[in-house]
Amino acid sequence: MSILATVKIRDIRSRKESQTRLVIIEVLYVIIGVAPGILWLLYFFIINQNEERSAESIFRVFVWAAIFTIPTAILEHALAASVHKETFQESMFSSFFLIAPVEEFFKLLAVWVGAYRRSDFRSPMDGLTYAVTAALGFVAVENALYILRFGPATVWLRLFYATPAHILFAALWGYSLGMARFAPSGEVLIVLRGFLLSVACHGLYNFLVALAPSKARIHLVPLLMALLIVVIAHVRKLYRMFPYEDLGETLLIICPNCEAYSPQSNATCSRCGASLSNLEPDSPRFCWKCRHQVSADSARCPRCYVRLRKKDSKEKTPAVLKEEAIKA
What we know:
This protein is mostly helical. It contains 9 helices and 4 strands. The protein has a two-stranded antiparallel ribbon with strand order 1-2.
């Protein structure tokens, strides 16, 4: 074999090895990009198994959010939505009225479809939890696509700016979603208020990137810090809301029509007025204070340890009601 042929073979091998290394590096960076979402799912599947919201609901919202990146991309492409436009006015319009509302709408839709009307949505705090889940599902796919399109150099910008930004934007409407879920009225208006605030902040984020791309890393920090302060305030407010609306020291049931809580002795739902008399005696019961699902015959809640009925309560237990139903 000639020296020239040997050199060519070595050159081909070297190129193949370089390409393989590049593919491996790119895959590793994609994994880093989707890592926050994967860790969030693992938290609920491994550590949070005993909580009142199921890991299945978290996973369902995450998957829906990931799926909804497809119609988001199609719609943004059809609308020619881009942060970087030729004029100041076009960039502003695209940031505030195209990209931000489309992306926040599909993230919110993932929670609406995956969890909002389900019995796993049991407290206002769940609104934030599911919103963060939707944001991480959405941004996991978005990070992977950005890294594959623009290269590994974008991974750290996505990880330290775009990912927390998506979480904070979603937390704004997630808070409103949680409040609306248990409000006696004005559900749509409460959600809309949080959604519009989220869109405004998301639009401002995009516009700051369009306005000065080279200085965006500096300009975005005050915005993200302000959003973090607002979200922390929301979380603290939700924790102060415990116990929930006082419905009396008694076991609660969930209305099959609107999923609101009502005392098990009520004949009709306190929110929508639907009849509760047809509920099965062994249907799920919940703590009047923390809304944790409890055994119908338990004396105390295993989560917050409050007494589930007043000492002098003459209320019939589900076991007695079931026995009477059988005799009847």
